[in-house]
Each structure stands twice: as C-alpha cells, then as structure tokens.
Design brief:
By secondary structure, the protein is of the alpha+beta class. The chain has six helices and 22 strands. The strands form four sheets. The chain has a ten-stranded mixed β-sheet with strand order 5-1-10-11-12-16-15-17-18-22. Strands 2, 3, 4, 6, 7 and 13 form a six-stranded antiparallel β-sheet that branches. Strand 6 and strand 7 form a beta hairpin. The longest helix has 27 residues. 29% of the residues are buried.
Length: 363
C-alpha cells in the first residue's frame, strides 16, 4: 500500500509539474502582429497581403493591413496595424500585392523569409527597464509582443522589420515585380479600368508636396536614393561618465531604432554597425543631478552628405557632448561630432532642432 501511495504521489507531482511547465511555456511565448510603412510622401495601399507561418496559406497567416492608404511620417513607423496576430511561431513567407501611388503601379511578390532570424529576435522577449510607481524602483520588463512591419518603396523594394518597444531591426530586403493584372475595382469601385485607376490615383495624390508632384510629372522619382539609406558604418556612440547618461535611443534613416540602457549594463556601449542617425533621445543628469531628457533631430540629406565623405570601413565615434548647465525647454546644450582616427567633424550643421526637458522618473 505504501508503494502504491508513493506511486500515486509521484504521478500527481509529475502532472502538477507538467501543467506548471506548460503554463510557464505558454506565458513565455512571443506573439506578433503586422504593420506597414512607406517613405514619407510616397504613399502605398495593399491590395492583398499575408504573413504566412508556413509555406502555403493553409498553414495559417496574419493579414497585412489593406484597404487603406499608408503615407508614413518616417520609415519604420507602424502604420495600419492589422487586428490579427500569431503566437509562438515566426512567419516563413510574405505574399503581398500593393499599389505605389506616386508611380501608379502595382507590385506583387512572394518572398521566403528568414524565419530563424525573426524568431531569434522574439523568442527570449525584448528586455527593457521601466519605472514601477508602486515600488518607486526601476525594474525589468520582458516584452513578448512584437510587430512585423513591411516597408513598401517605389520601384517595388520591400524591407521587412521586426519591432519591439526597445528596438526595430531589419530582417530582410526583397524585390517585387510589376503586376498589371490587379483588379483594383474590387477594392474601390471607382477604380474601373486604367482610366478609373488613374483618376483615383491622381485625386489621392493632389495633397502631396509640390516637390513630389513635380517628380511624378517629370518622371524623376529618386528610385536609387532609398538604397543609399541602408549603408551601415562602424559607428559607436560615446558619452562622458560625468553626464550620468542612462539611456540613448537612436532612430536611424533606414527605419531601424535602437535603445541602449547604459545604467543597466555597466555603461558598456554595444559595438556594431549602424546606419546614419535620424534622431537621438538621451536621458542624462544635469549639474544638480536632476534627470533630464533631450531630443536631437537631424536633416537626412545633410547627415548623409557628412557620412558619405568618410572613408569606407573606418571606425567612427559618435560623440555626444552635453552641457550639464542646460535648463528645461532650452533648444541648445547638446553638441554632436564624429571622430575618426584622423579627424573630427561637427554634426551641428545637420541638426534641425533640439530640446531638453525634465524627466522625473527614468525610462
């Protein structure tokens, strides 16, 4: 009887442990939805799009946002998020058809995705610090919700990003083909035939900036320009220890962004290749040890001109110099320069605007 009782106890313990493990695994599974973005002032609309978790639609999929015009304010913006999501499995295929409004051309493509790379960004979650108002302490949150974002470019280029609250990372670039057989009348009844499509597109393009309208009229859409956004540099940020910088959040012109939480990783600056910064957000301490936050915005073309004059492959330090006497609402106080083994180059002429303000709590 003792052996039977012991056996029953072990079975119960095993079942409870198994259920507990299953619940833990379920809680730790990542999930993702879909979004889309475009370069600013180059709108697009998806006719049909699916992120497929297998090799055929029967495997299951998440819809890409459709039946709406997307005109992002910047690359990597999560526009038109879909309502569906997948859990615990990464997508393997992207099947997409869309209209590029500035060209009045439809593009289609079926792309095999690097699902292992996508899953590697998701499987352990995305760690980020947050301020717990109840405990009044900084704690670590593991975010397991992601967004897979398809960037749609004139000319048919597709760039796929994985978004978390801490980072946006490119996981693939693809080329779609022009598709003249898309029945846009199914999406918009007035888009009947080529004449109906042209009238609809012209009407929707009316509010674009004159520069873009001139490109449409003169056939000068800068197709090659977007490829240049993806050039990467051996670029490493640098700050002074006395500035007590807690976080550097950088948005890049290629649509990626990166959060560096220095106060949590022993002030170690990650060494990696990076694109040209578009915006930098810095959390730091002023001369009175008051926590401050500063935003610095760069002009894309001026920044590109500076970086493209550097030697290919050379190491570049992105030096962030903070005047710790800077007061809230001031529009100066942060200066940035590039430093190589042979010279220093000021980035001040590329700065469009900056502003600093108080930040009572970190992050």
């Amino acid at each position: 009887m003792k052996k039977i009782a012991k056996c029953i106890t072990l079975i119960i313990w095993f079942n409870v442990t198994l259920i507990s493990c299953q619940n833990t695994m379920k809680e730790e599974q990542y999930s993702w939805g879909a979004a889309v973005c475009t370069p600013k002032n180059y709108p697009a609309e998806i006719f049909s799009g699916h992120l497929i978790v297998g090799n055929t639609p029967k495997s299951g999929y998440v819809y890409m946002p459709f039946d709406r015009i997307i005109n992002s304010s910047y690359l990597g913006n999560n526009d038109g998020s879909s309502s569906g999501e997948a859990t615990g499995i990464s997508p393997k295929t992207l099947d997409i058809t869309w209209l590029s409004y500035t060209e009045n051309k439809s593009y289609s493509g079926i792309f095999k995705l690097d699902s292992d790379k996508i899953e590697s960004l998701m499987i352990n979650g995305s760690k980020r610090p947050y301020w717990n108002k109840e405990t009044k302490k900084s704690e670590i949150f593991i975010d397991r919700r992601f967004v897979i974002n398809a960037g749609l470019f004139p000319g048919g280029m597709v760039v796929l990003y994985v978004f978390s609250q801490s980072n946006m990372t490119i996981v693939g670039k693809y080329q779609a083909h022009e598709d003249n057989n898309v029945n846009w009348e199914m999406a918009h009844p007035s888009m009947k035939g080529k004449a109906g499509i042209k009238d609809y597109v012209d009407y929707m393009n009316e509010d674009l900036p004159q520069e873009i309208l001139d490109q449409i009229k003169n056939g000068t859409i800068p197709f090659g320009y977007w490829e240049t956004l993806f050039r990467e540099y051996n670029l490493t940020p640098q700050v002074k220890a006395e500035d007590k910088v807690e976080t550097i959040l950088t948005n890049y012109i290629n649509g990626e962004f990166e959060s560096i939480f220095l106060s949590l990783n022993g002030n170690v600056m990650p060494i990696k290749k990076r694109a040209i910064p578009r915006k930098v957000n810095i959390v730091w301490h002023d001369i009175n040890d008051r926590r401050m936050e500063s935003d610095v915005y760069f002009d894309e073309k001026k920044s590109k001109a500076i970086f493209e004059n550097l030697k290919e492959g050379e190491a570049i330090t992105f030096v962030i110099d903070i005047d710790r006497n800077t007061k809230p609402r001031e529009t100066k106080g942060i200066s940035i320069k590039l430093k190589t083994s042979s010279r220093e180059i000021s980035m001040q002429e590329a700065i469009v605007s900056q502003e600093s303000f108080t930040k009572p709590n970190p992050y």
